[in-house]
Design goal:
Helix content: 25-40%
CATH architecture of the domain at 361-517: 2-Layer Sandwich
Strand content: 15-25%
Largest sheet: 4 strands, parallel
CATH class of the domain at 361-517: Alpha Beta
Distance between the termini: 16 Å
Strand order of the largest sheet: 1-12-10-11
Structural class: alpha/beta
């Protein structure tokens, strides 16, 4: 993992911890059934093409295609509303060459015009050359920066007076993406502004005067688009001023969603990365469905009102962007609270407090080993199923360990193996999943004896566990090949309880570490 990616994941982990900490319990009406589906491709470019196909199953309804950069997509923020207003589709491409998925979708649509959004430093001349072989007209709309590009898009595709003009900051993108969906649904333009400025510049003022809107609406809180800038924008066209914003991107997304009535469908997009949301703006317009930003694996807090009454959730992007679990509107459980089955404990994240002792420990399966009651019951059911299904007998080997016990084990391991080798298999006190009460090391047994933990992975019981542990709420926490993320060597015997919904989605989504699933940075060392 690169240092840049590690730093980015650390930032995301901190943001997610704060976001989930604010989230409450999902209070959806249990009688209100919800169905879910997914629109995705192999990457952001494939997802962009898949969204276009979903939005326009009849390609003859599309007159033009907007090509935007998939790696630097600020220039494309105004393109979604423009596409919606003019019967266009938005496709992402590499900067240097037209992506095969975009080219295939353009051929399917056979547009009269391709509009390239941004300068040659964003979408190259080579892309333009390739595009000319796919449409009779290819034009480029660009400016010296994202703000000028935004103004030129609005100038070309919104030539008349507009009742409402939306303002979004060009410094950060989540509010602009949620807002872009609203603008697209209502046929209004989005102008990018430098949100921290105290007034609009002359070029933006002229654009606002030309549009002569009755209302200017800013997306995001005052820290995103300043009050003085909003007042300056409304004064430029003698319009009323309004704001759709909250304390964070999720709350802003929900308030934007509530601004226009939909039809029961909500497009769920990750609040941590933004290219999928940019492409989804066109789908939001066609289906009259809002874009709601979500934590990748659960629903909670400010997102609850947007989905509690939804009848259809459409997940945008693959499981790496939005977990399948989101489709069932799961309650967010905390990942930094020791009592939670979703608690993250690794070499970078210690238990709080380090001396934590679970309140409801009990023995498991007639042994002296203990777990939290919920996990103990689940493990007993798993053990019974393994025997009934012909895998053989599984026995609890090592469950809850206190801080004191873990201190003893860690010190002994360091003394016998040295610190580096010891820490591949033994956690420091306060950093062990065993202390949570949600974990059990298991062994395989025959009718006459039980083997050691090292033999579990190659046993019939071990192979059965890999295939079936999720049915009972467990994951194999330390799989082979992921030491660079988890910090531990392979331990096929180390079972971590996270609950059936998460464990099932974890397996179905092809995840291999809890760090990846819960969007925590890699923790190879303390």
């Amino acid at each position: 993992m690169s240092m840049r990616r590690a730093a980015r994941l650390l930032t995301i982990g901190v943001a997610l911890t704060a976001a989930v900490a604010m989230m409450g319990t999902l209070s959806a009406d249990p009688a209100q059934a919800v169905t879910s589906s997914r629109v995705s491709g192999g990457d952001r470019y494939g997802t962009s093409a898949a969204i276009s196909r979903a939005a326009f199953p009849d390609p003859t309804s599309v007159s033009r295609v907007f090509l935007v950069a998939g790696a630097s997509f600020a220039d494309g923020l105004a393109a979604g509303p423009a596409a919606a207003a003019t019967g266009g589709a938005v496709l992402m491409t590499h900067r240097a060459a037209l992506t095969p998925t975009a080219a295939t979708e353009i051929r399917r649509i056979a547009p009269k015009e391709i509009v390239i959004v941004g300068g040659v430093g964003v979408v190259s001349s080579e892309v333009e050359r390739q595009a000319r072989a796919l449409a009779p007209t290819v034009t480029r709309v660009s400016g010296d920066d994202r703000y000028e590009t935004s103004r030129r898009i609005v100038e070309r595709f919104f030539p008349g007076a507009e009742p409402t003009v939306y303002l979004a900051t060009g410094r950060d993108f989540p509010d602009a993406l949620s807002g872009g969906a609203l603008a697209a649904r209502t046929g209004a333009p989005v102008l990018l502004v430098d949100g921290v400025k105290q007034s609009v510049d002359n070029s933006t003022r002229q654009a606002l005067e030309r549009l002569s809107a009755d209302k200017v609406v800013a997306f995001g809180g005052t820290g995103v688009v300043s009050s003085k800038l909003l007042a300056s924008a409304s004064a430029a066209t003698s319009a009323s001023a309004a704001r759709l914003g909250g304390s964070n991107r999720y709350e802003t997304s929900t308030r934007i969603e509530a601004a226009v009535a939909g039809n029961g469908e909500v497009l769920m997009v990750t609040g941590l990365d933004f290219p999928d949301a940019l492409s989804a703006i066109q789908l939001a317009a066609v289906r009259n469905a809002p874009i709601v930003l979500t934590v990748p694996y659960c629903i909670g807090g400010s997102t609850i009102p947007a989905v509690s009454s939804a009848t259809r959730l459409t997940l945008i992007g693959g499981p790496g962007a939005v977990r399948g679990l989101v489709g069932s509107r799961p309650t967010c459980l905390p990942t930094r609270t020791a009592t939670s089955p979703w608690v993250m404990v690794n070499k970078k994240t210690a238990l709080r407090p380090p001396s934590y002792v679970p309140a409801d420990l009990r023995t498991v399966g007639g042994t002296s080993e203990r777990m939290r009651a919920e996990a103990a019951t689940a493990l007993e059911r798993m053990i019974a199923a393994a025997k009934n299904e012909g895998a053989g007998r599984i026995k609890p080997g090592s469950g809850y360990r206190s801080y004191t016990t873990q201190t003893y084990l860690y010190n002994n391991a360091v003394a016998s193996k040295g610190k580096t080798r010891a820490e591949l298999g033994t956690a420091r006190p306060g950093h062990s999943e065993h202390q949570t009460g949600w974990t059990m090391d298991v062994v395989a047994c025959t009718s006459s004896y039980c083997s050691g933990i090292d033999d579990f992975g190659g046993s019939p019981q071990g192979r059965w566990t890999v295939k079936n542990a999720h049915r009972f709420g467990f994951i194999v926490r330390y799989e082979p090949g992921y030491t660079s993320i988890t910090g531990y060597a392979s331990e096929p015997w180390h079972l971590r309880y996270v609950g059936v919904p998460l464990a099932t989605d974890y397996k179905k989504g092809g995840f291999h570490t809890l760090e990846e699933y819960l969007v925590y940075p890699a923790a190879p060392a303390y």
